[in-house]
Design brief:
alpha/beta; Rossmann fold; Dihydrodipicolinate Reductase, domain 2; 6-stranded parallel sheet; 11 strands; about 30% helix; binds nicotinamide-adenine-dinucleotide
Length: about 260
């Protein structure tokens, strides 16, 4: 049995993760942390009577409960602190929270290199989204000109999305030349991320969607992924919980662990 703690347990993703962990026979949910829902019954919050835990506010509760893996879906400011706490307490960390700053990522990488537990930071756990990013990286070798349109629900805190930033990074690594109007000043042309224009749409009703549009003379190629429901992220989260112990240091992106 792997003992799992969910941080941000009362949030949209956290509740879904709690239900997913409870459904797996080799995983045991030992702590649910979320100061916004402290003292509430997780069973009621997650709508799952198997969850007999009360939500707690302090990260210390997961160490006290003997958690071996922490799953974090919180906010950018707290995910960094939570990941540091996990590494300091020899707890493996699976972080889905997006918007962690580049400086904090560098610090986490340094800490993870010396820690006895491991850290995964994945901007998107949906297998289709992971494939979309990998396919975009492949396509960029032949279509260096592209733009990204990411669409999310209107309560998302960060923009552009972590998925679009990671996609731009992967495309930039693989393409030779090409740009999508980098250096232009017009605000209607999206944000320049490593020479790739990223456009962010926020609307009620959406969950998480992204298109990568490639263009060259006389043709266009569009690679699109849609998460219609947060259940789309759960197989990836569960895979990460089971495998984080096998990958030393810090990993960014679930695709690194898959043979794609
Ligand atoms: P949400 O606002 O519904 O939930 C966040 C929860 O974190 C809240 O319940 C809040 O009370 C709690 N929280 C805030 N500070 C905390 C702290 N210090 N300790 C513990 N809990 C704390 O947000 P959400 O829609 O569930 O999204 C959470 C994060 O996950 C966002 O960054 C989002 O972009 C990201 N996300 C990632 C993926 C992925 O596949 N990687 C998928 C969807 C969302």
């Amino acid at each position: 049995m792997i003992k799992v703690s969910v941080v941000g347990a009362g949030g949209r993703m956290g509740r879904e993760v709690c239900r997913a962990v409870l459904a797996e026979h080799d995983l045991e949910l030992v702590a649910a942390i979320d100061p916004g829902f402290s003292g509430r019954s997780l069973g009621e919050l997650a709508g799952d009577p198997r969850a007999r835990l009360m939500v707690q506010s302090d990260l210390g509760a997961m160490a006290a409960a003997g958690a071996q893996v922490m799953v974090d879906f919180t906010q950018p400011a707290s995910a960094y602190v939570d990941a540091l706490f996990a590494l300091e307490h020899s707890i493996h960390a699976v972080v889905g929270t997006t918007g962690i700053s580049p400086g904090e990522l560098e610090e986490l990488e340094r800490r993870a290199a010396d820690a006895s537990s491991n850290l995964l930071i994945a901007p998107n756990f949906a297998m289709g989204a992971v494939l979309m990013m990998v396919f975009a990286r492949q396509a960029a070798r032949y279509f260096p000109d592209c733009e990204i349109i990411e669409l999310h629900h209107d309560r998302k805190l960060d923009a552009p999305s972590g998925t679009s930033l990671r996609t731009a990074e992967m495309i930039a690594e693989s393409r030779k030349g090409g740009s999508s109007g980098a250096g232009e000043q017009s605000s209607s042309r999206g944000l320049d991320v490593q020479g790739i224009r990223v456009h962010s749409v926020r609307l009620p009703g959406l969950i998480a969607h992204q298109e990568v549009v490639f263009g060259s003379a006389g043709q266009a190629l569009t690679i699109r992924h849609d998460s219609y429901d947060r259940s789309s992220f759960m197989p990836g989260v569960i895979y990460a919980v089971r495998n984080v112990g096998a990958h030393a240091g810090m990993t960014v992106g679930l695709e690194k662990w898959l043979s794609l």
